[in-house]
Fold this sequence. Notes:
The protein is mainly alpha-helical. The chain has helices at about 1-20, 30-65, 65-90, 95-120, 125-140, 170-185, 200-220, 230-250, 255-270, 280-295, 300-320, 325-345, 350-360, 390-410, and strands at about 150, 155. Helix 1 (about 1-20) crosses helix 3 and helix 9 (about 255-270) runs parallel beside helix 11.
Amino acid sequence: MQAVTLFVGAMAASSAIELPTKFRWATRENHIFQIERLILSAPRAAAIGVIVAVMVAVFAYISGRATIVWWAALVGTLIVFVNHIGGQYIWSHDLTLPSLNYVDSISGGVALGALGATAQRKLLPMFGFALGGCSAFVAGDLTGGIDLFGRNPLSGPSSAGWTPVEEPPIWLLAAALLLIAACTWRARPDFAAEPTAIPVLPPIIAAVAVALGALFSAEWLAGRNPGPVEIGIAVLGTVVPAMIAATLLPGRDGSGLLMVVGIAAAAGAVGVSPQPEWIVPVLIILAGVGLVVGARRPSVWISAGMTLAVAVFTASTAASYGGGRTVVLLGGAVLAFAVGHLCASARPQQVPSGVLLIAALALPTCVTAIRTSDRAGYPNDPRAAFAAAPSLAAGAIILCCMAGVALLHSRRPALSR
């Protein structure tokens, strides 16, 4: 039961961190200013949510009290649930969308960090937690074509609830709430002691570094013309903090974090295109298969190679197909498998490292801030970059992250298991 709870709970919490919620009273016609503010605040809220998740994971495990940790997960999920219910049926337009979105991300971070601390190196709970985080990533980052107000141009209004800006769906939140409540009721009072103590500051500083690096690079590039110099600065602004964060984590835990940054960049290069709603469970299954394969054949380099191949593929097809459905579908399928394989291969030594690995999937990337003429919102923009620019930027980030992984592995021996 704990594995199922961690899967559903992590999926709901990660989605709450990454994606803004939807409000029935907010329409493009009468609240355009608030909608714009909501979109601009979403990356900042996600960065805060990631930092909160790691902080909660650190102090949750230090507490040594399983009941306290489960209660933290329950309270965080409950706040997200109330926020979504209120946004749909209660809150008025007097409340600002960005403020409610920050509440969503922070509460999701509390829930995600607490849930991650309960896994405790147990195989099935760890699998459930990792699959939940990967599922939120594939449902949010790898499924495009559903706009801010839930109108899917391919299949009409979403009947399944998979609306990227209304995630997690109410039914998923309700299921997570019930499952976490049951686990809270049945929780044992104490954790089993971990072989080594968990340092407090290094994982928190690592989370701050990678989150702020990703956020500032994306926001800085979004406000400028995407020339080669500007893109290069944004790439360095993403990679350097990620490398610093990787060195702060114990052992080789930072290698997984570096490649998560690369996978996020590749997802930004794939772009968005209308996809059928059945693609979400297919991508989740692929992520699960990746987890199983990664557990049996662990290697960060396999997922790194697949991620780089996606960047090369999107760059080679950018001029001909742009963000076409086939490119998005194939790229998304490969990345879904790659992110699952990576999460299983990383095998972090400590709880906060694992939580950061999953939470970092929700971070923004500077690749999505690159304007190209074939991307939605920038048709015939004279300031737009050439079509392959996002893919080349993603490739540069992935190569730098691979170099960071190689350097980390050369300086830190593999942990015997």
